[in-house]
Amino acid sequence: MKTYRIAVCDDDEDIVRALKIYLTAEGYEVLTASNGMEALELVLQGNVQLLIMDVMMPKLDGIETMTRLREKSNIPVILLTARSEDSDKVLGLNVGADDYVTKPFSPVELLARVKSQLRRYTGLGGIRREEKEIFRIDGVCLDDVSKTVTVDGEAVALTPIEYKILKLLIQNPNRVYSSSQLYRKVWNEEPLGNDGAVAVHIRHLREKIEIDPSEPRYIKVVWGLGYKFAKGE
């Protein structure tokens, strides 16, 4: 059974210690860092499958760390934020974070989110063998074998969540999905007021695959209903 390696980054030593205890007890290997620079070094050295990182840190905060990380890696990232830092949550999703947990957090909730992100990233239990194909509509091509996306022949780096959203939409062209439906299918959880997270990821996805995100050719809004991948329009 594969052991996954998780990097934990927080300048609060008590939180780092607690997270290491929780994650180690679940069978994960845990690497620790106390600031964004150290977290980047850990991840870019390779063989890290997930990063849990605080937003407010010295030297390099979580948002700037995310921005730099996404230039080189698409591993899932769970941000830790204070309950009042709603702007940080949105900003974190905008720069490529996959999820966030508010402090103080429940160890059970955090572990559930860790397992969910790892399933999506590694493909364990999430993709049936017969679904692994190449999906191509106009200039967008998603290769679900190599987990790559190209637009007009140019490679596009997507986060795991962005990839899952694009895959669902391109597999079902012209089908409209509400924000709640997308959240359930991509996050495998009930929305519980998190529909805004879908809009943030859709916006970020458009910025990567559309020539003009304000006038999207592919991912379109059907007002009052949801989103679709347009084909033949």
Helix-strand layout with pairing:
Blueprint: E1 5-9, H1 13-25, E2 29-33, H2 36-44, E3 50-54, H3 62-69, E4 77-82, H4 86-94, E5 99-103, H5 107-122, E6 134-137, E7 140-143, E8 148-151, E9 154-156, H6 160-171, H7 179-187, H8 195-209, E10 219-222, E11 226-229
Parallel strand pairs: 1-2, 1-3, 3-4, 4-5
Antiparallel strand pairs: 6-7, 7-8, 8-9, 10-11
Helix pairs in contact: 2-3, 6-7, 6-8, 7-8
Description:
It is a single chain. The chain is α/β, with parallel strands linked by helices and 233 residues long. It folds into two domains: 5-122, Response regulator (Rossmann fold); 129-229, Winged helix-like DNA-binding domain superfamily/Winged helix DNA-binding domain (Arc Repressor Mutant, subunit A). It has helices at 13-25, 36-44, 62-69, 86-94, 107-122, 160-171, 179-187, 195-209, and strands at 5-9, 29-33, 50-54, 77-82, 99-103, 134-137, 140-143, 148-151, 154-156, 219-222, 226-229. Helix 2 (36-44) runs parallel beside helix 3, helix 6 crosses helix 7 and helix 6 (160-171) crosses helix 8.
